[in-house]
Amino acid sequence: MKKITVADLLRKFSLRVAAGENQLQKMITHSRVHRPGLEFVGHFDFFPTERVQILGKKEITYLHKLSEEERKYRIGNIVHYHPPCFIVTAGEEGLTYLKHHCNDQGIPLLLTNQPEDTSEFITKIDAYLVKELAPEMTVHGVCINVSGIGILLRGNSGVGKSETAHTLIRRGHRLVADDIVVLKKLSPQTILGTHDEKTKEFLALRSIGLLNVVRLYGRKAFQDETRIALDIHLTKWQKDDLNNELEQEPQFIEYMGVKVPSFEIQLQPGRDVAGLIEAAANNWYLRQQGYSAAEEFMSRIEADIGAFNKL
């Protein structure tokens, strides 16, 4: 799991430091921020002290209306718990008292460059923290986005994963990662695939070498990340080992406890593997919409049988 500091937030969201500038290396360990409201009126039973604290227009207006003594008491109750930092989205005016408390307790106080909608800012910062603090692992393979559907291609070294990805890129699809794929668990149902920065935009082809797909095919050939919807295992051709049933039983593979639909495609010279992957992606999408080609086919057969029985 990547480590996030207050300084990382400062850079990512172009924030300004109003107090506690010598504490910017404090660690952030929770993927959700908190907007203290109940805490300002004395309810601390469920106060998530480990979260970044966001102060918007409502909170700042409330504090401004308090007497100096009451304000000191209310803020003192919160800074006593030493949260990682405070971020104010309502501007800098009248925050001298808050700066004093943060400097005194060694808590960074950060400000947005201009007043922002607090709810929108929380959505942005939560999304960043969820992604950066997500449990992660690496797998050997290729990650590609086919028609908006994230696919993880796996297989033994030299089986043809990168070559297949190259064919898909030339057909208008997008590379995410080659060789080393970083998987991040964003939720119990969601796995995100991305690169490890060093291999960003690169695709390695045997006999050709390293390619930069953006330089070769333009920005449309690459994207930073994609939700993994399918796991496809590429294997060498084995005669008489293909499944010709109308619809195969669904198979799954687990990554960090998240089940991903998985199946095998066998490789053989002349076989349009890229086309099969496109078909698999489009068929998966139709299944998500509730359509099954096998079910429609069987309904036609049953209708024909029913019509024949009436003769």
What's the short version?
Helices cover 32% and strands 28% of the residues. It is of the alpha/beta class and 311 residues long. A hairpin with a 2-residue loop joins strand 7 (136-146) and strand 8 (149-154).
- Which bin fits the share of residues in helices? 25-40%
| N-to-C span | 68 Å
Low-confidence blocks of residues = none
The proportion of residues in beta strands is 25-35%
SSE pattern, N- to C-terminal? EHEEEHHEHEHEEHEEEEHEEEHH
How would you write the strand order of the largest sheet?
A: 7-8-13-10-9
The total beta strand count reads 15
**Could you give a short account of the major beta sheet?**
5 strands, mixed, barrel
Number of helices: 9
Determine the mean pLDDT: 91
| Rg, Cα atoms, Å | 27 Å
Shape: elongated
Class from secondary-structure proportions: alpha/beta
Walk me through the structure.
It is a single chain. With 311 residues, this protein is α/β, with parallel strands linked by helices. Helices cover 32% and strands 28% of the residues. A hairpin with a 2-residue loop joins strand 9 and strand 10. The model has no long low-confidence stretch (mean pLDDT 91).
